[in-house]
Specification:
Elements: E1 2-5, E2 20-24, E3 34-38, E4 46-55, E5 58-62, H1 74-77, E6 80-81, E7 85-89
Antiparallel strand pairs: 1-2, 2-7, 3-4, 3-7, 4-5, 5-6
């Protein structure tokens, strides 16, 4: 399990800055899950996004914020591999 403090507003209204979220390893990922991921273009940066779609082991990720400019996601960097995913958000 990994605890993460949310920074930024890309996951509004679901998650807001300052929220502390738990993520755990879970191989049963599906569309709609919120995941913690290594950013594919920024070394040592982790991001929290929702799985929008899965295609052949590649994941298309999006932020929940309806403002299209509020999220650095798969619209900018493309799909990510399963190996990039650190964990899935735990719901309590």
């Amino acid at each position: 399990m990994v605890k993460v403090v949310i920074h930024g507003d890309s996951m509004l209204p679901t998650l807001k800055p300052g929220d502390i979220i738990k993520f755990s390893v879970d191989e049963s990922l599906k569309e709609g899950d919120v995941v913690l991921v290594f950013h594919p273009l920024k070394k040592n940066v982790k991001i929290v996004k929702r799985i929008k779609s899965i295609d052949g082991g590649r994941f298309f990720l999006e932020g929940d914020n309806p403002d299209p400019l509020a999220s650095d996601d798969s619209h900018n960097f493309g799909t990510v591999s399963f190996d990039s995913i650190i964990g899935k958000m735990e719901y309590s």
